[in-house]
Amino acid sequence: MGLRAGLLGVGMMGRHHARVMREVEGIELVAIADPGGDPHGVAGDLEILPDIEALIGAGIDMAVVAVPTRFHEDAALKLAAAGVHTLVEKPIANTLDAGRRMVDAFAEAGLVGAVGHIERFNPALQELRRRIEADELGAVYQVVTRRQGPFPSRIADVGVAKDLASHDVDLTAWVVQSDYERVFAQTAFKSGREHEDMITITGRTASGVIVNNIVNWLSPMKERLTVVTGERGAFIADTSTGDLTFFANGTIPLEWESVSSFRGVSEGDVTRYAFAKREPLRVEHEAFRDAVLGLESDVVTMQQGLRTLAVIEAALESAANGTAVSLL
């Protein structure tokens, strides 16, 4: 018998949570609630409970909240009041005020409050973070992310900034271990929906790293790239395949006179790393379990989730006003 776990919401994301929660050692999925029933047939021998109150009534130690963003606060506050450690899907909430109330509730109750920023657990980014920490890149100069693809079939209750750009803001700050300090953003509304479907965020972290996040739902090709450029070269992480490649700055002197007079970098060796590629959602659940057990973990805290939402809100404010926004 492990930790008794409950799941609220078994839609597009919740169905994956249900599968992984049944596979992770040390936790036991004992209850599922979804007012919309079980569209993907993941309940198995569990009864589909009608609401969060019924889920809490099942006697759970920890819960995953995978319902639309606007419902996060209500569920999380009820779980905190009931003494249940909780992981909510990203973004933490649909407003900063709601996110703050969630952060405060879990802090006051002494519970683990976490946010499902799953990209941090992508094998390519985990490997990238380890290598930057080991100083393989030297000083980090710039992070560029590109997250582009067609509009998702699921109807989103938020725009592309909160749904997708929040991934890039979170992973960028985590990879360089420094928060965004200033942002300038531009948005576009091209598909007739009330929310933006394209955003570009440019900014700088407190540590001086230049950042650019390019995100949209308007591209016929799917792209999930993070490029980190630094003193010794550039890492390219493809989070759709989990691959990590390093382009080293060359050290071989160039003989062609007009080129060799340029004192920049030259092309060196290109290395594609081989490493274990575990499913990010499983690694995320293991981190949440470890945090609940009081062990050291990489879990994304609600405080960090709130910071990411603050950056996204600042970017949307910047786009609306045409000015840069400081986050200090």
From TrEMBL:
Domain of life from the UniProt record: Bacteria
Tagged with keyword Protease: no
EC top class, as a word: oxidoreductase
A matching Pfam family: GFO_IDH_MocA
Transmembrane segment boundaries: none
E.C. numbers: 1.1.1.374
Gene3D superfamilies reported for this sequence: Dihydrodipicolinate Reductase, domain 2, NAD(P)-binding Rossmann-like Domain
InterPro entries, sorted: Gfo/Idh/MocA-like_OxRdtase_N, Gfo/Idh/MocA_Oxidoreductases, GFO_IDH_MocA-like_dom, NAD(P)-bd_dom_sf
Domain Gfo/Idh/MocA-like oxidoreductase N-terminal: 4-117
Keywords from the named record: NAD, Oxidoreductase
Sequence ranges assigned to domain GFO/IDH/MocA-like oxidoreductase in this UniProt record: 126-235
Gene Ontology molecular function: oxidoreductase activity
PANTHER family: BILIVERDIN REDUCTASE A
Protein name as annotated: UDP-N-acetylglucosamine 3-dehydrogenase
